[in-house]
Each structure stands twice: as C-alpha cells, then as structure tokens.
Specification:
Helix content is 65%, strand content 0%. With 274 residues, it is an all-alpha fold. It has a domain at 8-166: Serine Threonine Protein Phosphatase 5, Tetratricopeptide repeat, CATH 1.25.40. The chain is globular, with a radius of gyration of 19 Å.
C-alpha cells in the first residue's frame, strides 16, 4: 500500500457535497413556520418528506430543509414524548443545512447544533443507528469549520458504533464515512489513517450498497493502492450508474479527475494497459 501524508483536516471534506467557504449567508424566510400543522406526528412526517434523502445524493434545497427544521423545532416544544425521534431528525436536518450553506460560519453554527441534537438523541436511545451516524457527520462539519484536528479521531467512535448497529443504514453510510476517514487521514500515531482498512471498509460498503458515491470512494482507495485497473472499473461503474445524476457535481468531477490521472499514467507508461 502506497503511504500518504495528508493533513487531517482534508478528511473533513469526505462527506460534503459542497465546500462551504465565504459565500453569502442564508436568510431564513420570516414565515418559515407559517402553516405548519399542530399535530407532532404530522410535523415529523412533514420533516421526513422534506429531508428524507440519502446522504450520498445532492442535499435538498435550503428552503426545504429549513422548513423541515422549523417543523421539528415546533414538535420538540410540544411533544417531549417524541424527543428521540425529533432530535435525531434535527441532527439530520442540521447536517443537510451545512451541506447547502455557502457561509462557513453559518455552517459551523448548524453543525454545532447538530452535534448537540445527536448527543441528546443518543442519550435517550443508544441502540439506534441514527444518533451515532449523524453525530459523526456533524462532528466532521464542526472540525471542518474550526480546523480542530482532535475531532478526527473523536468522530470515528460514533461512526464505528453506527456501523456496528446497522452498517447498511443510509446506503452503507457508516462504512462509507469510516472508509473515507481511513483513506484520507494521516496514519497512526498522528491520526487514524489506514489505507488497508480504507480499502477493506469501502469494499464492504460497495458490497452492501453499490451506489455511485460508494464506488467513487472505493475507486479512490484502489488508486491510492496503485491498483489502477480496479480503480478505473469502480469509477466508470459509478459514472455509468443511472443514479449518478443524483450525485453532487463535486463527486462526479473527482471521479473524472481520477480517470484522467489513470489514463495519463497509462499513456505515459507502455507497460501499463487497461
């Protein structure tokens, strides 16, 4: 396995469909709560309709996610008996907000809230996969916004717990998250990077859920392992998949960039052929 030496913060981009920086701040609609139902079950159902998308696909529009967050916030104040179901969904909503926001400082605020909601949900029911999974995702966003390298190791723990509970959740999201962390983080003792574990974990993710993003990450792992033929196969399968249209443009571009690197290597080395 070819060694790699990447800065820990690079791992924090592992799940992001977009890279929040210094873009314009999102201003919520003043009527974001207008017309919401009063029944807490209906509020939860509305939030699910608005935000129940795989994390491996493009996030919903900001206004839609913000409406879901508003619905869940209303439910939380009126139905404490549903606190667990509401709080993990709020953690999901906060993460989705960070995915679509353009201002890094604003994204950080939602990620911090997402971490707190996930922790609250986990304290209520640690046997469910959702709070562990969305805790890991929001912690990654906090680390991205603050460049806190210590969070890289910390976010692996809830991701591992999520994978232990249900590795197939969200199209093998816990495995996808862990595999990308192992692939991009520096190796021990600096951090948790482990190229061999990355390849093994992402191969399991593809086996459990052969969706395009899982294949893109596995292709990257094969590329780092200098298994270029296997890398090309996974990347081409990802882009040819009918579901590739739902991939964020960033991931499609990364897949094409890796394929171009492979093609350039093949054309410059007569011993290499695909």
């Amino acid at each position: 396995m070819k060694p790699h030496h990447k800065h820990p913060v690079l791992v924090l981009l592992l799940m992001s469909a977009a890279c929040p920086s210094s873009g314009p701040r999102y201003v919520p609609d003043l009527d974001r709560s207008k017309g919401l139902p009063d029944n807490p079950r209906k509020l939860i159902e509305l939030a699910d309709r608005l935000t129940h998308v795989p994390m491996a696909e493009k996030p919903p529009p900001l206004s839609r996610t913000d409406r879901a967050v508003a619905a869940l916030e209303k439910a939380l104040t009126t139905a404490p008996q549903y606190s667990f179901e509401i709080q993990w969904r709020l953690a999901r909503g906060c993460f989705l907000m960070t995915e679509a926001l353009g201002a890094r400082s604003q994204s950080h605020g939602y990620a911090v809230r997402g971490v707190e909601y996930a922790r609250q949900a986990r304290s209520l029911n640690e046997r469910r996969v959702e709070p562990h999974y969305f805790l890991a995702l929001n912690m990654a966003k906090v680390a991205e916004a603050t460049s806190d390298v210590h969070l890289v190791k910390a976010m692996v723990e809830p991701a591992r717990q999520a994978a232990k509970i249900d590795m197939t959740y969200d199209d093998a999201g816990p495995l996808r998250f862990l595999g990308k962390v192992y692939l991009t983080a520096p190796a021990w003792p600096v951090s948790v990077g482990n190229p061999d574990k990355a390849l093994e974990t992402l191969a399991r993710a593809v086996k459990a859920a052969p969706v395009p993003l899982n294949r893109v990450f596995l292709g990257q792992a094969y590329y780092q392992d200098e298994e270029y033929e296997a890398a090309e196969q996974q990347l081409r399968l990802a882009l040819r998949d009918a579901r590739a249209s739902k991939l964020a443009e960033r991931w499609k571009k990364e897949a094409r960039d890796y394929l171009n690197r492979i093609a350039a290597g093949a054309s410059s080395d007569p011993r290499t052929s695909f």
